[in-house]
Structures are given as C-alpha cells and as structure tokens.
C-alpha cells in the first residue's frame, strides 16, 4: 500500500499525541507512546517531526488555532442577562464534565507552553483568543437581553475567561456539581452587575424568531480532529 503523505502522517501523530496527553499527561507523551497510539512504526515519526519537542510545539499551536465557540444557548423570552450568563456557564461546565480528560490535556498543554522556552507566546495568544471570543459572547448576550456593559468590554471579557478557567479547574479537582453550580450562579451575578438595562427605545430590534446563536456561551477548547481511519497503511 502507498505511504501516507507527510501532512497526513503529521496530523495523525498530533491526534495521537493529544490522546496520550489526555490519558497520561505531557510527561507520558513519549515518542514511543505517540507512535503506538497512532498505529505507526517508530521510524515513521522522524519522517514527520524532527523531535518530540517539535511535535508538542505544533500540537500547542494546533489546539490554540482550533479554539472556537461550540456552545449554543438560545435566549428564552424575557430572560435576564444574569440567567442567560448562568445557563451559558452551566453549559460550559457540562462540556467539562463530559470530557474531563480533554480539559485536563488543554490545561496541561497551556502549562507546557508557559514553561518551554520559545513557546511562551503561544499561551499568551491562546488567552487572547479566549478573551476575543468572550467579548463576542458578552456583546450578544447584552444585546439580546436589552442591556449595556458599564465597563470596558475587554475588561469584562477577561473576567469571564478567568471565571470559566476557575470553574473548570475546581470541578476537575473535586467533581462537586453542587459547588460548581453555585459558583456559576455567583459568576453570572457578578458579571451581570457590570451591566445596566437600556430603556426600551434604545434597545436594538430583534427578529420575531431569533436563530440560536453560538455566541451566547463561553468559548471552549477543542482537540485536533481525529483521522478518518485508524492506523497507517503497511
């Protein structure tokens, strides 16, 4: 059978590396563990990457590049900003609960990039992306509930990102759903307190049947896309 193109080989190794890190952490993502997960021979690795460090650097960049809003929380009729934010935070918490290993891997990759000379900027860029997506979420949440933020949007967005990180890390540590729900409610109250209702004549017109928007919940992190088929042709 034909050999895999280098680009496809690299993609499969990135997917395998993320899977191994999700299971065993960055320390466990040895070259051998990654190629075993990918169903490749060890020699195949060096056709795709010069070193393990190059693989991990590209994985960090790939994960950051895939940051996107994947949560959808359409607003209910007459819903307050606080309640909309709380539902968005709880939806985000659901994604953490559904795939805790993925979330741990994301945090570990962030820590790895901050500790590794030459990769520090990747962590900063990661959080710049989170804050930009949070700003979009907050803008739309305020518009849909007839509110306006009283402080600079970038400041509120930074608060939202910090709150979602704390919410996720605390739940990963103790898996206490009740405590996490209380934290989400507190975070929503704190954020909503930074907004004020607009008078009816100042509110933007909304469609009679608004389509669900992906921007009414916090950003989340996504893993590299899995290969179409497992393993490598012989």
Automatic annotation (TrEMBL):
Superkingdom of the source species: Bacteria
Ranges for region Disordered: 195-234
Alphabetical list of InterPro entries matching this protein: BetI_C, Homeodomain-like_sf, HTH-type_TetR-like_transc_reg, HTH_TetR, Tet_transcr_reg_TetR-rel_C_sf
UniProt KW keywords: DNA-binding, Repressor, Transcription, Transcription regulation
Family annotation (PROSITE patterns): HTH_TETR_2
Classification via PANTHER family: HTH-TYPE TRANSCRIPTIONAL REGULATOR BETI, HTH-TYPE TRANSCRIPTIONAL REGULATOR RUTR
Protein name: AcrR family transcriptional regulator
Organism: Herbiconiux flava
